[in-house]
Amino acid sequence: MDTKSRESQYILHTYKRLPIEIDHADGVYIYAKDGKRYLDYLGGIAVNALGYNNSRVKAAIMEQVNRYMHVSNLFYMDVQSELAETLCKLSGYSKLFLSNSGTEAIEGAIKLARKWGSSRGKSGLLALSNSFHGRTMGALSLTDKPKYRNGFEPFLPEVGHVEFNNVEDLRSKVDSHTAAVFVEFLQGEGGVNLVTEEFAQEIFRLKRKHDFLVVADEIQSGIYRTGKLFAFEHYGVRPDIVTMAKPIGGGLPLGGILADAGVEDVLGYGAHGTTFGGNPVACAAGLATLRELVQKKSGEHVTELGAYLREKLQGLAGKYPGFIKDVRGLGLMVGVECATECAEIVTKLLDKGILANCTNGNVIRLLPPLIIEEEHVDAFVAKFEETIRDYAKPSAV
Ligand SMILES: Cc1ncc(COP(=O)(O)O)c(C=O)c1O
Fold it and tell me: Does residue 240's CB lie within 6 angstroms of at least one atom of ligand 1?
């Protein structure tokens, strides 16, 4: 039986696979079993910050595998504490809890917020419309996309949603009962949407008034993806809790919750836990990844390359105004809003050797490895323009 038939017979059909069977990957390229090479503008959905086959990350993994792969969180582990120290020092946050995934980091943040609120008479949780925070039941209660929620009711009680960037709606929904507001400062699954400066500042003004926690979901936008360690830094604000995942395990499953000084002691011994979270091999991969990102000055590189990519895409938008409706994002988290649903465009890009992804129906989401160079931007933009020509003629001007 071949892979496709075996998968169809034995794996739950929760993922519609792209028609590629992966053989191996290297740098910013993925190679299929049929020998075809793809330039990666998906990055394992924002996981592969250093692309593929990074020798330092591989060496760190092998070294840890040879020492031990799992012992349980009942023991001190040098590699776990070093990752925590590195993340806390880079971010200025006090303490870290390590989970296995993004949705599990959100679950932990929900528990932290509820526990913090329990002694203050606050239990309300708010998230933003169109948000994506994960698919386990707590995280799904915050996630606001019908396609993920339908049929899974009832959700957590006392969870509400504020219309994205609607300051009036925000003011009307937060009150003294609010324990936490969850925010993706740059929404990913929702279509690469930026919180406005006014909305961000209003969240923190209301926080000072009503005393609630702000949780920044940086699972997709974090770890230099936007040019800064976290997307919220672009607003000059400081959330109480930061959730992370995707790139922090260097390709292995790892998530994390950073807690600021005021909330670092809320979850005491036994209040939260996980068997696998903070797995030492994943921590070794994550630590090597972080060190490499810092050494490569990835923030600056991403800012530069992101500006170059958006400038080129704006050029295409000027040339095909009837087709490209908007180009937005920060750093190397970029959305291209198209006039049509873009699943077909993604398939056409695949045929041309480009791997990208479509989100929110008509937005092509670009999440390349943070190590791409100008030549990879030029290659992408050229293939994208070839694809657009099937849909729209260039404008006369
Ligand atoms: C912003 C955000 N939050 C949470 C999640 C859930 O993370 P995971 O898929 O690791 O559970 C994702 C995943 O895409 C995400 O983008």
Answer: no
